[in-house]
């Protein structure tokens, strides 16, 4: 896999845009306030999503098996244990470097379906849902997986996204929204490079139906940009589908790189701003790259350095395999300490 400078910038933008939207959903007076901007459990869980993916890829390079869902489950369990929740087997195995980040152990709000599923000790899946939750936490936390795509049509990230979402959220609409969002974000990260005819083809009919709704929202934003009533209609609650459609509408209403701040401000008018704003920021960061994100906010982002480091490490794992493998030398002696393959 080879990446360009633009792709690196877009992956960083995706990660940091998500966290920025999440943080602004908490700091209503971000323009006037100073000091750090912290987010919600969405940002914390997004960090562990990426860490779980890196560890799964690292494991595969050494053992030929990755078990991504199991690695995702273990990653979310480490988050829960760090937050003080009782999770069966949550401390099994080495912790990795995220365990030493203070901001990941602080109370940044709840993620009820996630915590309840982890506390139950049974890993959910698309064939055996663990509950019927439709909440946005299962959706927003997996958006960074678009950063691991090897090309604009790579279907692996969206399948991992669906599997990671299904670990704790049982409504199929959460998985389908995750697949569609990651497919769209993958195209944005790659700038449309290599696409055959401009069409996204998703294997599941239900995914294609949801993608059609996304395309309708993009067209609506072209006709009626920045309409708060429309935003409320598209995203009336805290579900994954609301997060998807509301985020697409907010981002598509303010597509220009100089209007990223306007898009994020607009997303905060959604009834459930903490659902919509992360997707808005992720889309525009993936579209324009990290330089388009407002520095006056980005410089105050509490988890900014963590997500930026994770973005670089994910790309390093994909391109360089720093921890080595069966036929590859070890480039970083501490890689297996930072990302234990288990």
How would you describe this protein?
The protein is mainly alpha-helical and 342 residues long. The protein has one domain: ADP-ribosylation/Crystallin J1 (ADP-ribosylglycohydrolase fold), CATH 1.10.4080.10. 56% of the residues lie in helices and 0% in strands. The protein is built from 15 helices and no strands. Helix 1 (5-26) runs antiparallel to helix 12 (273-288), helix 7 packs across helix 8 (205-223) and helix 8 (205-223) runs parallel beside helix 10. It is globular, with a radius of gyration of 18 Å. The two termini are 24 Å apart. Keywords: Magnesium, Metal-binding. Mg(2+) binds at residue 274. GO terms for molecular function: metal ion binding.
Summarize the structure.
This protein has 342 residues and is mainly α.
Describe the SSE topology:
Blueprint: H1 5-26, H2 41-63, H3 68-82, H4 112-120, H5 137-140, H6 156-166, H7 172-189, H8 205-223, H9 228-234, H10 240-253, H11 260-267, H12 273-288, H13 295-298, H14 304-319, H15 335-338
Question: What descriptors fit this protein?
Answer:
magnesium; 15 helices; mainly alpha; ADP-ribosylglycohydrolase fold; Ribosyl_crysJ1_sf; 342 residues; 0% strand; ADP-ribosylglycohydrolase; single chain; metal ion binding; metal-binding
Give the number of DSSP strands. 0
Rounded Rg = 18 Å
- Major beta sheet summary: none
Uncertain stretches of 5 or more adjacent residues: 193-198
- In sequence order, what are the helices and strands, one letter per element? HHHHHHHHHHHHHHH
**Helical content band:** 55-70%
Protein name: ADP-ribosylglycohydrolase
Pfam families: ADP_ribosyl_GH
GO molecular function: metal ion binding
Organism: Goodfellowiella coeruleoviolacea
């Amino acid at each position: 896999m080879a990446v360009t400078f633009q792709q690196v910038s877009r992956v960083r933008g995706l990660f940091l845009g998500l966290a920025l939207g999440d943080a602004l959903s908490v700091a209503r007076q971000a323009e006037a306030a100073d000091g750090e901007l912290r987010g919600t459990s969405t940002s914390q869980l997004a960090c562990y999503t990426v860490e779980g993916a890196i560890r799964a890829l690292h494991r595969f390079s050494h053992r030929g098996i990755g078990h991504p869902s199991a690695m995702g489950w273990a990653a979310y369990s480490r988050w829960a244990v760090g937050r003080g929740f009782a999770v069966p087997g949550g401390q099994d195995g080495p912790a990795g470097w995220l365990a030493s980040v203070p901001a990941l152990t602080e109370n940044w709000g709840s993620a009820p379906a996630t915590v309840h599923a982890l506390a139950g000790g049974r890993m959910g899946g698309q064939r055996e849902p663990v509950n019927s939750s439709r909440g946005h936490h299962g959706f927003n936390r997996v958006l960074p997986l678009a950063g691991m795509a090897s090309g604009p049509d790579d279907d692996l990230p969206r399948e991992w996204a669906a599997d990671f979402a299904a670990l704790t959220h049982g409504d199929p609409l959460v998985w389908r929204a995750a697949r569609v969002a990651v497919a769209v974000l993958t195209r944005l990260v790659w700038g449309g490079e290599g696409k055959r005819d401009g069409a996204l083809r998703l294997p599941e009919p239900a995914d294609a139906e949801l993608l059609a709704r996304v395309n309708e929202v993009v067209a609506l934003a072209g006709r009626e940009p920045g309409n708060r009533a429309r935003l409320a209609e598209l995203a009336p609650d805290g579900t994954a589908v609301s997060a998807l459609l509301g985020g697409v509408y907010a981002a598509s209403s303010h597509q220009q790189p100089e209007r990223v701040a306007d898009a994020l401000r607009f997303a905060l008018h959604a009834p459930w701003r903490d659902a919509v704003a992360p997707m808005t920021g992720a889309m525009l960061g993936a579209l324009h790259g990290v330089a388009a994100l407002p520095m006056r906010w980005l410089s105050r982002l509490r988890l900014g350095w963590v997500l930026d480091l994770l973005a670089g490490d994910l790309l390093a794992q994909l391109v360089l395999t720093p921890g080595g493998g069966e036929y590859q030398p070890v480039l970083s002696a501490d890689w297996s300490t930072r990302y234990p393959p288990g």
